[in-house]
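User: Can you help me understand a structure? I only have the sequence.
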Amino acid sequence: MNRIKKLFIIIFAISFASHVLAKDAPASFADLAEKLMPSVVNISTTTTVVTNANPFPGFEFPPGSPFADMFKEFGTPQTRKSAALGSGFIIDEKGVVITNNHVIQDAEDIVVRVGGDKEYKATIIGQDPLSDIAVLQIDSKEKFIPVSFGDSDKARIGDWVIAIGNPFGLGGTVTAGIISARNRSIGLSRYEDYIQTDASINSGNSGGPLFDMNGDVIGINTAILGKGGSIGIGFSIPSNSAKKVVSQLIEFGETKRGWLGVRIQVVTKEIADVEKLDEPRGALVASVAEKSPSDKAGIKAGDIILEFNGTKIKEMKELPIIVAQTEVGKTIEVKVWRNKKEITKKIKLGRLETSSDFKKKEPKDTKRETPEISEIKSLKIIVRPLNDNDIKERKLPNQTTGLVITNIGKNSPVDYLNVGDIIVEAQKKKIKSAKNLEDILDTVLKSNQKTILIVIYNNQNQRRYIGVKLD
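Assistant: Let's start by predicting it. Here is the structure, written out as tokens:
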């Protein structure tokens, strides 16, 4: 009797599981794909590329030389047309198309193919390299079939999704899969919060939509992992991140991102321990730009931003995204951890695109002086004093003092640093000499502390806090 009962339970469990799977897994994507395909477009662009075939660039043969005529043709710049393919989707019946910026960057001609056979010229409404988003306008008075953005915050790992695009120039292609991860960062830009999917995404899918099962766009397919083709890991810009960029590009032709004026870094366990913070969280302010919104509000290097405009910052990478999406000119509250307690500051946000942070700075070559050097035995490094030439060359604040690392020994506790990094603080005290640093290290070691907090300028002149474990 017990065997019959067990057998009945097993049969019931299998039947129930089959019912659940049949309910959650669509029997077919055909109806959804048929509905969405008219809104997905193929994009082809043409760019003129100028090349110089001269095998000896920068060198010219003397007039009358027998080699002058031989290589004459090489000295003439050669032009050729370069074509690129991508995908996009229509969000307005008037023919507004969303795609990736890298699909249309530097394009001279843009052709949008709708429904697989109808071709239209398109112009650029706006483009944003930082988010890799561009908005196009189809040059036609026809009415098109649009799709809508969905709420990407509601998308969960394991949800079914479909991608439609133009892989390898094959035309409208539908692939299906699930969301395999959220909040991915792969090092392409400062604003990364990608949706990861195993729906096949290949070269040519860039700019195409990632749909949920309601037919709403929850992502813009942007990148793949690996070379050549799909290996089951693709990345999409979440719709909630894209919507604000798209609306600004349509309204202004450019973006208007919020700007704090700070450089930040990850709060490590060592740094959290030194600062007596309950756990590694928030974003550590490594430096504050002069006359920036943060500078005016009293934010200081060494502060840990725990909350921004009511949103708690769990990881450092969350802060730039939230700030960028906040309205320029808005006054917000920021909660920071300073001197082992929480304080609140009010900051009026500036605009990133008009800030000094947005402009690239070109380094200048200058001669170096021959300095004195010292060994810091407890860190197993050799250093020299920071001099006026260093300050001028690296454009550091005029009153900066510190030590330039010239050698890092084997098994050094700071072996992850680089020669050329500058130690400017230790335990929140300015470093003026090698002896100054050694005295601070001795004090820490005698107090049986395991970690010392130092501040450096790295080779990119970024100010960073480092928690160093001492032997």
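Now, to help you interpret it: The longest helix spans residues 2-24. The CA atoms of residues 46 and 183 lie 34 Å apart. Let me know which part you'd like to focus on.
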